[in-house]
Design a protein that fits this description.
mainly alpha, 8 helices, globular, disordered N terminus
């Protein structure tokens, strides 16, 4: 008879239970554990680029913050990951449309001549960000002044 060996967990290291894990990521673990279809959850964890991005971020052991995510190149997977973490309460809410403009600007200006960068960057900060802030303020006012739902 062969000796029993512990089975390897099918979960990626980022979501595998450990003795110590970052407390802000607990809501994500809880949500994955409560999924209706464990097989679907495992497939998502194994095959999804979103799960791979999460695993690569969690592997470093540093806290996942908006500032840390802002340092990564923008992508739809990063946007999805951030939105998921905000929805689960692992990251605080922020105005994404407004806060993504500086990262977008850095990406756009990365391969431009220095003269163009010196001309465009102040304009974007003065005009585009000012308009975006004004738009965000109007949007927040509209949300706060919206009538209460009928059930209140």
């Amino acid at each position: 008879m062969r000796p029993l060996r512990p089975r390897r967990s099918p979960l990626p290291a980022a979501v595998r239970p450990r003795r110590a894990h970052p407390a802000p990521l607990q809501p994500l673990r809880d949500t994955l554990a409560l999924a209706e279809s464990p097989r679907g959850t495992l497939q998502w964890l194994k095959n999804s680029p979103n799960a791979a991005l999460f695993a690569s971020l969690a592997a470093f052991g540093e806290p996942i913050t908006h500032q840390r995510l802002d340092q990564l190149p923008p992508s739809r997977h990063l946007h999805y990951l951030r939105h998921t973490l905000v929805h689960l309460g692992a990251l605080p809410e922020r105005d994404e449309e407004l806060d993504r403009i500086p990262a977008w600007l850095d990406t756009v200006l990365a391969d431009r001549p220095t003269g163009h960068v010196r001309l465009v960057r102040p304009y974007v900060h003065w005009d585009l960000l000012r308009r975006a802030r004004r738009h965000a303020a109007r949007r927040n006012r509209a949300r706060s002044s919206a009538p209460a739902p009928w059930w209140f």
